[in-house]
Write a structure and sequence with these properties.
globular; 6-stranded antiparallel β-sheet; Replicase
Length: 206
Amino acid sequence: MSLPDLKVRNPIELIQQEHLTGHHERDEYIKWFQSLDTKYHLTLTMAHGTSERNAIALMNDLIKKLNSKIFKKRYTFHQSAYLQGVTVMEDTSKMESVHFHFLIQKSPYIPCKEKLEALIESILSAGKNHGRDRINEFKVDSYYLSVNTSIEKYLTKIFEWYGNAQAARDRFGYLGPNKVEFGGIDSLSKYGGGSSRYIPRYTAAA
């Protein structure tokens, strides 16, 4: 069994089972990401000082509203269709916040790039406020697979930034029907709650 066999499920159990560490673990994440049938790479950037807890809440709210607009009754009534893929949360040290990368998988109902951008813009505009915590900007890129300029390699660079492998693993999650499920995040996690910022010694590049 390998990580690609897990598709969009959390790979931590297999990693622990196989005792993967360091570069070997990062390589498995890269292969796992590359096994997904990805259509878009979406980036969400938060306003300065937005706490992790609020950033995650804002991100999940956007994803739920996107699901509703894209999949309509298939999502709102049955949750038989929703955005699927993987998410990476990274620190944005200069903004004292975090940002998110999504690899969104192909689906019969996902619109073209321009339509998706318009949907996200409409959701953000409808909920726009002048408060401190908010989604500041977004970027949608069409996905392409390239060995030399691998987005998968870029999104796993946090394994090089953290001395603790578990801290890196906790930054990866998968898109569920109602929220992004991050590995290892709970009430005791530095990402799990509270509005105060925890600035780690090592931060991922923006």
